[in-house]
Amino acid sequence: MYNFEYHKPASVADAAALIGKAEDGKLMAGGMTLLPTLKQRLAQPSDLIDLGGLADLVGIKREGNAVVIGAMTTHGAVAASAEVKQAIPGLAQLASWIGDPAVRNRGTLGGSICNNDPAADYPGAVVALGATVTTNQRTIAGEDFFTGMFETALEEGEIVQSVSFPIPEKATYEKFRNPASRYAIVGAFVAKGPNGVRVAITGAGPTVFRWKEAEAALAANFSPSAIEGLKHPADGLNGDIHASAEYRAHLVGVMTKRAVAAAG
Amino acid sequence: MASTVTMTVNGKSVTGAVEARTLLVHFLRETLGLTGTHVGCDTSQCGACVVHVDGKSVKSCTILAVQCAGSEVTTIEGLATEDALHPMQEAFREHHGLQCGFCTPGMVMSAVDLAKTNPDPSEHEVREWLEGNLCRCTGYHNIVKSVVAGAKAMRG
Amino acid sequence: MNAQPETGIGASVRRREDFRFLTGRGNYTDDINRPGQLHAWIVRSPHAHATIEAIDKAPALAVPGVVAVFTGADMVKAGVGSLPCGWLINSRDGSPMIEPPHIPLSPERVRHVGDQVAVVIAETREQARDGAEQLVVTYGELPAIISMTEAIKPGAPLIWDQAPQNSCYDWEFGDRAGVEAAFKGAHHVARLELVNNRLVPNAMEPRAAIGDFDRGTGEYTLYTTSQNPHVIRLLMGAYVLNIPESKLRVVAPDVGGGFGSKIFHYAEEAIVTWAAGKLHKPVKWTADRSESFMSDAHGRDHVTVVELALDKDGKFLALHEKTLANMGAYLSTFSTCIPTILHSTLLAGVYTTPVIYAEVRAVFTNTVPVDAYRGAGRPETTFLLERIVDIAADEMGIDPVELRRRNFIPKDAFPYQTPVALQYDSGDYFTTLEMATKAADYAGFEARRAEAARRGKYRGIGVSSYIEACGIAPSQVVGALGGRAGLYESAEVRVHPTGSVTVFTGTHSHGQGHETTFAQLVSDLLQVPMESVEIVHGDTNKVAFGMGTYGSRSLAVGGMAIMKAVEKVVNKGKKIAAHLLEASEADIEYKDGKFQVAGTDKAKAFGEIALTAYVPHNYPMETLEPGLDESAFYDPKNFTFPSGTHICEVEVDPDTGVTEIVNFVAADDFGRIINPMIVDGQVHGGIAQGIGQALLEGCIYDQQSGQLLTGSYMDYCMPRADDLVSFKVETHNVPAVDNALGVKGCGEAGAIGSPPAVINAIVDALSSLGVRHVEMPATPHRLWQIINEKRAAKAA
Predict the structure, then answer these.
(1) Subunits that touch chain A (at least 3 Cβ pairs < 8 angstroms)?
(2) Is A6 among the domain residues?
(3) Inter-chain contact C259–B77, Cβ cutoff 8 Å?
(4) Domain containing A9 — which CATH number?
(5) How far apart are CA C691 and CA C684, in angstroms?
(6) CB–CB contact A242 C779 (8 Å)
(7) What span, in angstroms and rounded, lies between the C-alpha atoms of C30 and B35?
(8) Interface ipTM
């Protein structure tokens, strides 16, 4: 790892000031992606601003018809949360499938969505549930947040504070894991709720996307049989040594169907 | 760029010089000489480096020493008492849950964390929990047996 | 089942190594730090094949903390030699194999991604890495050859100018004419092309080495992650660095798994030792896992055509194998004997096949060298055999278990001379097959298949009956076959004045539990409490000599050396006792820890004899030296031949291609067992590695660039706890005849028997689709593609 200046601000305002001032600063949430990247010397930030001291960004609360989760809340906390399990069990399930227990004890919701790894899990939930991302500057609709591979709508120095997940009628997540890395080769988050039926797919493409054809079919008939003959095209999907685009396209169908079946 | 960091390791307050980039595992191994915590990969997957930070299992290769300022850290060296092995260590010994011993410290630390969160884990739950701990020797067969037995012993 | 004894031979004694490992007190190479130590970072080639045009050290030397930079040119200038290959194989035309040089730092040309180009030595590891990034190496890129089938094409670019068509050797073995004749008259010939997938061993402890040089005494010390420190001392001292054994100490402390990959003498060991001598300071190197992937010798990597001729009753008439074996870019220490001597000699398997012919061509490619990995040649043999037997069974409409039974070597046929040189001393393949089929409820399988089909799953069962040859020997035969080493083992049993015993063994334990098993053995043989026996290994300054641990040899060879040394101790004790008891030596018997005059109650305890040996006041000094410290070398007269049957049951999900192992049974014959708990553990680990090979693990290179695409755990799929199940393991032990202990090796059996069981099960599961063979690893992606194609073909 190259060396850097380490900062641990006590407030979001201080963090924003530090990142604004740094020559080439990086914000660090749980560090589960950033630290391995730095260890491989794939990045050389001048300053590392550790958000681990921002207690305000940790926590899960019910606000009206939504569950609001602080950006620095760990996957482990979301997976174990009685509130989340009761309101959006699919979200707790999703969190419980990220990484391994030690990673879940450090990795955070905010870190995951800001990194926007194509194979990350959380983007699926944010998009399918129609969540709203709150930053230190504004709120961003979940669907507008993810703009491309490892790209988000965040401006320079903008810090995610929380994500508000509207409570759906039903929501489930099914994941086909990369056998080696255990990241999602395909993840399908299916939600039925105030926003209608939404199917968000991660892992398969450069970034999370909605499978509109499936949504339409499921809106008419929310059952696995409704999407039985539906095939997602392979065009534009990721292909690598673990899964061709065709296989991913096929798995989009399988995982979506399974998610719908699990939603009951 | 060097600074000092103070934390509690295995019940004792320790202070040492670190760089910002110093990982907890290197602080433990090199500064404190606690070489029971191992490094088996560079992609945060093998789990040989698992320790407890403030009571939770953490990969010490994926956390900076400076991030642990003020924290309570427990390593494999801090698990047994002067007189007796921790029940999880004892279960690994009894059920031959280790061979070369390299993954063992991380494996045991993960298992202790599991038993704390899930005092009566099934074989399936143990296998899922150990997703982040690789072992090349045992085929996990006896590790799973050990963890189930260790958790039982911890329940008392 | 008989109740186990609590101590001694046959007892599941809990391991004495465990306390230190469980409490973080193990002492692995990277745990060692020497005063004044410097750190090395190896600059590795980013190219698969390139000339080194120029190296500019200055920018690296300017980096703070950097002490020195050495290149291949520096090594050549200093007269550093080549990493040697330990086995000469001659081609069928009698010409010796092509044996290219392997200087620890490549002087002129790099031949695989990760090849060592230079070493940067600095005060800290990060500084060394900083320096390495600044080193300016100018490469001239050359076309890379990754695939063996491409490499042997006429006109393919040459990796070594002296090796036309990139061929290292073209070897044949067995009875060509006999096989051709048998095939002509055969009722049926089964034929299969298959790949034995390339694996990365991945012991959990990455390799590490510390070189140290004492300027005062001129002695070098190398601490290294090795399975055989004496072999490293011999090879590095004699061939590479020209240091006599008397000035070179090699220590292999606790080693975190080897599986073959830590047998070999690696460049980094020579680099740090040499650099320590140049700099007069200790130099330490520890691999990152990413470095391990591109510098540890890989395993397997065969492309094979196998043909089996059968008569109308399914009796095997003849077997023919034609294999391409990947050597990688250089010849690793034992690479050349793996696909030949350790592979084709096992082609009879557990069967009475009367004639066999093998052709093996070893090929250079721009990849990491390939060498022994758990099983080393024998898993490759077992895979092709147990696959072709299943293919033949399917084609002839005979149940695969029945076909095996018809061809097993009968129980009363031992010693059995195979047509491929080996003579099996004992075995009972029928009983282990029966045990396995019973434990797996083979008879009831079709009902389970039908039930799974109702759930939309393909269920299959696969059988694999294996044999393996462990404890390679004897030295004279090995020598005649091209081996450049002896394959004996040494032991010293040092009885101390108060009766405690230190046993020095030339084998090395890196997970196998020798400190426990050998102590049990000595405790049993010497009739002393286990607590008074200590086992020492892994240090050339403590242990006189040794060949180390690999090929499941430690107990069968090392244990026998210990037994011989114990016998010498007892014999000398008898002489001392005879003197003290004023009896004839011939009348003294050693029993229950006492030297007793037969038929009387006159006796001396072991401790009294030990004390007398060291305080020889009343002693037969004219005829006997004082002291009680005996050593022995044991050169086995034969291999040992463990065998057994593994059965795997799987369910394949056609929607995803995912294979779930629902049951795995192993019934093995390991001869006499010292510690059943440890033996079971060895089997579990072997099975997991075999399942890993069959389902998960595969080393993939980009065919154009030669970049290793599976270069970390992100892409190379290591078996995890939730990929596996608990295994049902049992034994039926027929003592070995050719060693006095009656023991057989058990370390590799799991990895040898299991891969074909898994693949046979998958092929069986998919047989209704017309699937005949599935390559390893049978990943979900691969199976989904196969299922998809077969279903589409059926629909069309």
Answers:
(1) B, C
(2) yes
(3) no
(4) 3.30.43.10
(5) 11
(6) yes
(7) 9
(8) 0.98
